[in-house]
Amino acid sequence: MGTRPPAKAGAWYVGDPADLEEELDGYLADVPETINGSSLPIPGARVIIAPHAGFAYSGPCAAWAYRCLDLSKAKRVFLLGPSHTYYLVGCAVTTFDKYKTPFGDLTVDRDTIQRVKEAGRFDDIPPRKDVSEHSLEMHTPYIYKRMKQTFGAPDRFPPIVPVLIGDNGRAQEKEVGRVLVPYLKDPENVFVISSDFCHWGSNFSYMVYAPEGDWRHLKHLRGNHPTPAGPPIHETIRLIDEAALDAVQSGSHDEFVGNLAVTGNTVCGRHPIGVTMAALEHIRQETGATGEEGKFKVIQYQRSNLVKTPLDMSVSYVSAYAVL
């Protein structure tokens, strides 16, 4: 039904293509040439987790995931994100034919969208909500940039498959994961999972604190509380994020869901991460994999602010990849 406009261009990221390319080039250049003993991109790293805040905040962190991303065999790129603009139960797919970026258009794989929609009984994303949703759009400039580096001419770019993953429970995430299994098993498919991590502050209704330095024992602060006398608040944020990331790297979907149930960590992309972990775990069980294949490796962790007082706020950003 036409082309989705780049609604956040000029606000969440620069809209001028030359300036945007210079910015992304700078972020990508700051990533080391090797990660975990491998030159970049990492062979077989066709699943990544990357953040979706304004590029001034999350762009440097996202560059780590995108430098690792292996597009060499890609015939399509799945883009999974959470819904910020409306409450979604289940999942929903884009109705647009293209996603416009300042660099040019990314074509949507309408055939795959229809197959995924039917297999998972997914809804359509209301077009106005699609346009206002940043969790998908904030990845499109990086995707375009990496496609250009890999494939050269835009007419050789693989299409994208944008999907919003809604507020699903543990069992529902496993069901959606089973829908994704055949696509994850196909070496011609790449997956970009959109998520920020802890959102801390009164405006996020999440102000936990670990006075004893243990994420299992949290108290709740209020904005009018004095600054805690114990460890700084940002240490608590680090602890709860590290606990969530340990669960992500464990490869256990149940461990990830269980960890967030304990901490209440405001990982906005918990459901896209959850369905992907459920699918990857199913594949490992099916193949009898015993190594690290199909498990995420976290390679970068950053925060927008080091919170010291209850009046502060912070959002955490993570980059990770999985090799299949």
Automatic annotation (TrEMBL):
InterPro entries: MEMO1_fam (IPR002737). Pfam families: Memo (PF01875). It comes from the Eukaryota. Belongs to the MEMO1 family. PANTHER family: PROTEIN MEMO1. This is Uncharacterized protein.
